[in-house]
Amino acid sequence: MPATVNRGDKNADVALLQQLLRDLGYYGGKVDRDFGPITEDAVQRYQGDHGLRGVEDGTCGPATWRSLEGQFGDLEGLRSDASVERYVGASYGIWHSSYSSPEDRLAAMESAANGELSAVGVPHVAFAFDTALAAGNAVFDHEIWTAQVAREWFETDVAESLSEDNQREIVDTVYHEARHAEQWYNILRLMAGLHSLQADGQFQLPDGSWSTAVVDQRAIAAAVADPMLQSTRTNGAAVDWYESFFGSGSANRDAVLGSISDADDTNDRHGEYRTGLPEEADSWDTGGNVQREYRQYGAGGGPHDQPTLRRGDDDNAHVVHLQQLLQLRGYYLGHQVDGDFGEHTEEAVRSLQQYAQVQGDEEGVAGPATWEELLP
């Protein structure tokens, strides 16, 4: 919580206070870090409207800060420890139980993910199988508000013999896509809060022109009904996501996505990929939290249980696992998960080692230190 501030203070906490009060319509001055008479008047009017007069008259202390921060949404959302713990607890049971069909198991995962999404106000996300996706993969389609999931690992004979490592991967992947749904919803809420999104999906771009948000109508309607206030304290992440899709980062996003189709330099562009796509970096980090939590529910499958792998290893379930983990981290993109530790797998391992500053393993070889990075 920020420090107590009152008239005469000049600091960053005053600037935050001014920003929050401005977003709520109490402060009409500049955000200048100077707690002067205009700021004091705004604080007093806010306190009067929220039962705080006589508690901290004109001073912004703990009670006023708690009240102010309660006016704004929590963008930590699915990244919060509590959300991850609840989701993993539910998901672990799903992958250690018998289901009569792949559809029933997917429905259980859908319920687990939507339990967390609904807690932060995100409209229900449908889950469906897509046979075109490789095993363990998924993608969120914001246009139809649906997460498409690969079917293979949900088949009964496969699911009931799936390793703990693969269980963690699919649980991570589903949550990764759920986080994308949350991101899109908060982008829409931000657009509504900035008065640039209308109920029919029309929104104003930063250059002043108008376009149409090709997003599921339920999500648009919910966002318009629950606009996000404009404080940079609470919507900083949403601003980054919005900028990546529609604002100053969109050109870079297009360039980065274009590079992914070029298999020769995908791994070399990994740093730019994460920098250019903040929504992906965020979802990967969120998935990492899920993997760590899931490991606490099971035994084995940790980094020290993995063999050292190098170029030339092939037809190997461990290589498949390595390739899948590299993809989840944004490496080995555009290549087939085939169990063959070839040139592209070696390049992906080398890129991971360089980007994450992995020490102790031979370059391009997946040894203990590399596994420790992939399976923290």
Q: What can you tell me about this protein's structure?
A:
This protein has 376 residues and is mainly α. The chain folds into three domains: 12-69, PGBD-like superfamily/PGBD (Muramoyl-pentapeptide Carboxypeptidase, domain 1, Orthogonal Bundle); 73-238, no CATH class; 239-374, PGBD-like superfamily/PGBD (Muramoyl-pentapeptide Carboxypeptidase, domain 1, Orthogonal Bundle), CATH 1.10.101.10. It contains 15 helices and five strands. Mean pLDDT is 84; it is low at 262-269.
Brief summary:
The chain contains 15 helices and five strands. It is mainly alpha-helical.
Largest sheet strand order: 1-3-2
Largest sheet: 3 strands, mixed
Distance between the first and last residues' Cα: 30 Å
Task: Give the low-pLDDT segments.
Answer: 262-269
Number of domains: 3
- Listing every helix as H and every strand as E from the N terminus to the C terminus, the arrangement reads HHHHHEEEHHEEHHHHHHHH
Number of helices: 15
- Overall shape: elongated
Alpha carbon gyration radius:
24 Å
Number of strands: 5
Q: Roughly what is the average pLDDT, rounded to an integer? A: 84
Question: Features of this protein?
Answer:
mainly alpha; 15 helices; 376 residues; 51% helix; Muramoyl-pentapeptide Carboxypeptidase, domain 1; three-stranded mixed β-sheet; two-stranded antiparallel ribbon; 3 domains; elongated
